[in-house]
Amino acid sequence: MKVIYTDVLCIGAGLAGERVAVEAAQAGFDVICLSLVPPRRSHSSAAQGGMQAALGNSIMGEGDTPDVHFSDTVKGSDWGCDQEVARMFADTAPIAMREMAFLGVPWNRVVPGEATYYKGGKPFQAVEKAENEGLIHSRAFGGTAKWRTCYTSDGTGHACLFTLDNRLLQLGVTVHDRTQAEALIHDGVNCMGCIARCLRTGELLAYVAKTTLLATGGFGRIYSATTNAVICDGGGHIIAQDTGIVPLGNMEAIQFHPTGTVPTDILVTEGCRGDGGTLLDVNEYRFMPDYEPEKAELASRDVVARRMMEHMAKGNGVASPNGEHLWLDIRHLGEKHITTNLREVYDICMSFLGVNPIYQFIPVRPTQHYCMGGIRTNKNGAVYGLKGLYSAGEAACWDMHGFNRLGGNSLSETVVAGRIVGKAVVEFLKGNETSFSTQAINDAAAKVRARIEALTHGTEDAVALRKALGEIMLKHVGIFRNGPVMQDGVNQIQELLERSKNIGIKVKNPKGFSPEISMALRVPGMIKLGLTAAYCALQRTESRGAHSRDDYPARNDSEWLKRSLATWEEGKSLPTLSYEDATPWFEIPPGERGYGGGKIITADIPSEKIKPFGQEKK
Ligand SMILES: Cc1cc2nc3c(=O)[nH]c(=O)nc-3n(C[C@H](O)[C@H](O)[C@H](O)COP(=O)(O)OP(=O)(O)OC[C@H]3O[C@@H](n4cnc5c(N)ncnc54)[C@H](O)[C@@H]3O)c2cc1C
User: Fold this and answer.
1) Residue range of the domain that includes 200
2) CB-based contacts of 136: which residues, under 8 Å, 6+ apart?
3) Could you confirm whether 41 is annotated as catalytic?
4) What is the mean pLDDT of the chain?
């Protein structure tokens, strides 16, 4: 087997992986990135609306500070986040945003003078200040007190990823695309890289590295209805969980986005509502202000998604052959705005729905979108359990999102965490010598070989199992949850897990290009991820953010200001769960979010756990 050596192995070349790679390469280290697809096709490029940073350049963002951003993030998380991390994030985001501008991101910029903006479907005039001419502009997103989302029309992820990828080329970073990491190389203490499979040739390769980064994005594809691309299958989570040592954090925290389009589930950005779009029911009635008088369509995603489902359940949905839905109306924004600032939305509607959003409503309903939970790390991105292993981006549970991520905070996280974790990786490399064990490399390779070999004898169809998993997850671990339904889901997924031990491939020669093998190797791990999410959700007897239980409707701060940690011991049919405090300290003690309502069972927070609020404390 070919062995490839490097200082830093970034598994994943989306925004988070590439940002870490840039930091390490700039410090003079040798870096290799792996990706399932050419890096510029990583899922980050699908991100539309923008990324949050408290720059306060636009008139509607005036007075914004990292303190306000931090406060919005903590409230958005429903007090589920790590406040130390959320603070690091909010303070660093403006720097990271300007860095991206320096690297070449063509941010939309402030144009001085009178501007027409929209809120809740109604136009209003505002004057952008002359002294802010050319500074980075911002738009509104849900759950924020200020307009803070920096954007490049509605192709923000695309623009940022192409920019970072150019920087990677400049720095001479090697990218091995169409390469799938299959197992981490470790000895129970140190991580030493991974065994990967070349998707072109089927060859197994050992990547031996002093530090390894998991930046493999989300695992939305465990749901049958999701905005996520087919490559978002949780590859990094799977190999982390497979170690039996690395815990996954808060896997029950799963976000549903209000505006997945019907029937494709392709997203239309929250920027549509941020720019003034409204949600309408079957009677073309704007219902959100009835539920959320202040924030209306711009409450946080968990709240809007629930209100939409409730409103449809009351008989106000639009019947269609593709199931019930509601309408998103952006017509009033006009042709110029729609074909410039929302041009991807325009293209998506025209190409995939046959709908022209300049004149027609867009059919939407909530769909799975984002995984707040993931590979648990400390504040520097070091993964719990294995030295030399880091994680960043959507794959990680760094944990600034808690139980609900604010729109615009994920793209921002990729470059902010990428910067912070990248620096930590560099420090690790400077301060540590690593020795590699051929035994560990051979053990990991033997495990992958055995799995591939077993596929030639199996009879179960991986695609059918994955489809069944997606449907169970949607039905049993969806927007509204309750004990008996989730227990039933857990039981059903356990049956799939048993069947997944006998997955087979039809083309029996397991060599060469074979999407069938790639899928067959992924599905058992995806089933475990689904089971982990379902089981963690079942144990969490409260409602917090996107985790909403009919049988436990209150947010229970007295018992559940905690993060779930799930490890999977080999041979077990369920993960082992433990818990840790959600946050080391509180700058903002638990309280009301200001939207969404709901009962709160309060906690007594010891005074030594409360820190003064705001940057001035430093
Ligand atoms: C349609 C859509 C729109 C969005 N819009 C916004 C937005 O406007 N604002 C915002 O803040 N957030 C948005 N998000 C969320 C945000 O885009 C993502 O959370 C973020 O881009 C994830 O970046 P990442 O670098 O962590 O992962 P990704 O960009 O998903 O990259 C993952 C990388 O890992 C690689 N990989 C995966 N598995 C393996 C494996 N086994 N071996 C090797 N490589 C592997 C992939 O090839 C890829 O290179 C959006 C999400 C979606 C789905």
Assistant:
1) 2-108+140-253+370-431
2) 55, 57, 97, 98, 101, 107, 108, 109, 110, 150
3) no
4) 96
